[in-house]
Specification:
about 35% helix, 8 helices, globular, binds magnesium ion, seven-stranded mixed sheet, binds guanosine-5'-triphosphate, Rossmann fold, about 270 residues
C-alpha cells in the first residue's frame, strides 16, 4: 500500500496530474439529455386523422410507427403515457375501444417529422367472427403494404405472453423486419408483476421475439418510458436528425392516470 502522507512517497508530478484530472464537468449526462429530447419530441404529438379502413389512410412520406397488440393490451394508454397527454388516444377498460386506425403527428413547430399509429386490438372474444377475420386482414394489409411504416411496437400483457395472434403477426412482418423494419415488444402492465415474474417474462418474450428488442413497460408506474421514447426517436431519426430543443416544461409528465385494469377478454 502506498503511504501518500509520507514526504518521500509523494511525487510532485503525480500530485499535479491528480489536480488537473478533476475539472468541473458541467455537461448534462448524455443519457439524460437524450431522454429529455425524446420526451419533448413525444410531447408534440397531436391528432392527425382517423381511418375506418386502410384505403382511407392518407399516403404519408414521414416515418410511421404503429402500436399493435391484443385488445386491452394497453396500446392507447401507452401512446398517452409516452406523449404525456391524458386523452390523445382513446383508452378504455372495455376491450375493443379503438376501432379505427388513428394517426398522431409528431414534430416541433407544427412540422411533422413522424407519425404514430394507434391500431385497433385483435383477439377480443366478443367481436363477431366475420369482423375478426376482416380486421385481421386489414391489419395484415397495413403491415405489409404501408410504405412509410418504419417501426412496430407490439404491446403484450406478460401475464398472458405472446398469443397465437401475436405470433401470426410476427410471421407477417418478418420479411419487412429482415429489410430493416424496426421492432419492439413492450411487456405492458409490468406493475402487475413482481421482480421474479418480470425477469421470467422478459426472457420468455426475448426467445419468442427472435432477437428483437423486448422491454418492460408500465403506464401506472411510469416504467420504461424513457427507454421507449428514446428508441422511437432513434427509429424516426436514424441519421441523428436535428435534435428538438426540448424544454423541461415540455418534457414534464402530467399527473399519473387513474389506471384500472379491465375485466379482460380471456
Ligand atoms: N395496471 C395497469 N393497467 C393498464 C396499463 N396500461 C393500460 N392499462 C389499463 O388497461 C386497459 C386497456 O387499456 P387501453 O390502452 O385502452 O388498451 P388498448 O390496447 O388500446 O385496447 P383496444 O383499443 O381495445 O385494443 C385500461 O383499463 C387501462 O387503464 C398499465 O401499465 N398498468
Ligand atoms: Mg386502444
Amino acid at each position: 500500500m502506498t503511504n501518500t502522507s509520507h514526504p518521500r512517497a509523494r511525487k510532485p508530478a503525480a500530485a499535479a496530474k491528480a489536480t488537473i484530472a478533476r475539472p468541473a464537468d458541467t455537461r448534462p449526462a448524455p443519457a439524460k439529455s437524450a431522454a429529455v429530447v425524446a420526451s419533448g419530441w413525444m410531447h408534440t404529438a397531436r391528432f392527425l386523422t382517423t381511418a375506418p379502413q386502410l384505403h382511407h389512410l392518407p399516403p404519408l412520406d414521414v416515418p410511421e410507427i404503429a402500436f399493435v397488440g391484443r385488445s386491452n393490451a394497453g396500446k392507447s394508454t401507452c401512446i398517452n403515457t409516452l406523449t404525456q397527454q391524458k386523452q390523445l388516444a382513446y383508452a378504455s377498460k372495455k376491450p375493443g375501444r379503438t376501432q379505427n386506425i388513428n394517426l398522431f403527428s409528431l414534430g416541433k413547430q407544427g412540422v411533422t417529422d413522424a407519425v404514430l399509429a394507434d391500431l385497433p386490438g385483435y383477439g377480443y372474444a366478443a367481436v363477431p367472427k366475420a369482423d375478426k377475420v376482416r380486421w385481421q386482414q386489414v391489419m395484415a394489409n397495413y403491415l405489409v403494404t404501408r410504405e412509410n411504416l418504419i417501426g412496430i411496437v407490439m404491446m403484450c400483457d406478460p401475464r398472458h405472453g405472446l398469443t397465437e395472434l401475436d405470433e401470426i403477426l410476427l410471421d407477417i412482418i418478418r420479411p419487412r423486419v429482415v429489410d430493416g423494419l424496426k421492432f419492439l415488444i413492450l411487456l405492458t402492465k409490468a406493475d402487475k408483476l413482481n421482480r421474479e415474474e418480470s425477469t421470467k417474462a422478459l426472457s420468455i418474450a426475448r426467445l419468442q421475439a427472435g432477437g428483437g428488442e423486448v422491454k418492460l413497460f408500465s403506464a401506472l408506474k411510469k416504467q420504461g418510458i424513457d427507454e421507449a421514447s428514446m428508441l422511437l426517436w432513434q427509429w424516426a431519426h436514424p441519421e441523428g436528425g436535428a435534435a428538438p430543443a426540448a424544454t423541461t416544461a415540455e418534457a414534464e409528465a402530467e399527473e399519473p392516470e387513474n389506471l384500472d385494469d379491465a375485466e379482460e377478454d380471456r
